[in-house]
């Protein structure tokens, strides 16, 4: 169970004015709604650039262009964000947020910029930009989303990727994102939790420390339709 859960699931959307490309802020709304529909009390906090970093159950970092990404990591470094995470907080990060959590990342001109060092991951500039649909096998499920980034991310040998790329590039054409005890990350926009409600549920369950009751929604049907369009699989997305 994550630090910051005392009967109320506290979701912190961090710097949405900097890190909110392609609707990534919608991930917060998805977590809030799917938790509330199960009777879980939720408190959603939008953390602006001038706000103090709150104690939360889940911190959300979205995508952003190079300039906002650099500003964002500087603000995070000066805040208590790293302290909260190392003290038991949990992070879900997308694209630029993924890179920020790592050891270093490249920005325009191939300049290397220091990350927060919470995960052993180095991102360098790729020769080509990855733009388009992304499909990732995560355990016995498939994640669908959209990627638009120029990075190639290499994980330390001890860091587990979130999943295996079946379409698109993700980190490097083979794996996407990472999954540690304190952070999950992906290159998939969408917002990815709206496009993959099962992943939102797994995230909530991981933070709470117990399985959730099933919840049927229109988002689940849209996920199945999207999956069928991209892969030809019309099931719930679970692999046999």
Molecular structure report:
By secondary structure, the protein is of the alpha/beta class. It has one domain: Class I glutamine amidotransferase (GATase) domain (Rossmann fold). The chain has helices at 26-36, 66-78, 81-86, 96-101, 192-195, 197-208, 218-231, and strands at residues 9-14, 42-47, 58-61, 90-94, 104-106, 112-114, 121-138, 141-155, 163-167, 175-176, 178-179, 183-186. A 6-stranded mixed beta sheet has the order 2-1-3-4-12-11. Strands 5, 6, 7, 8, 9 and 10 form a 6-stranded mixed beta sheet that branches. Helix 1 crosses helix 6. The protein is globular, with a radius of gyration of 17 Å. The model has no long low-confidence stretch (mean pLDDT 93).
Q: What's the layout of helices and strands?
A:
Blueprint: E1 9-14, H1 26-36, E2 42-47, E3 58-61, H2 66-78, H3 81-86, E4 90-94, H4 96-101, E5 104-106, E6 112-114, E7 121-138, E8 141-155, E9 163-167, E10 175-176, E11 178-179, E12 183-186, H5 192-195, H6 197-208, H7 218-231
Parallel strand pairs: 1-2, 1-3, 3-4, 4-12, 5-7
Antiparallel strand pairs: 5-6, 7-8, 7-9, 9-10, 11-12
Helix pairs in contact: 1-6
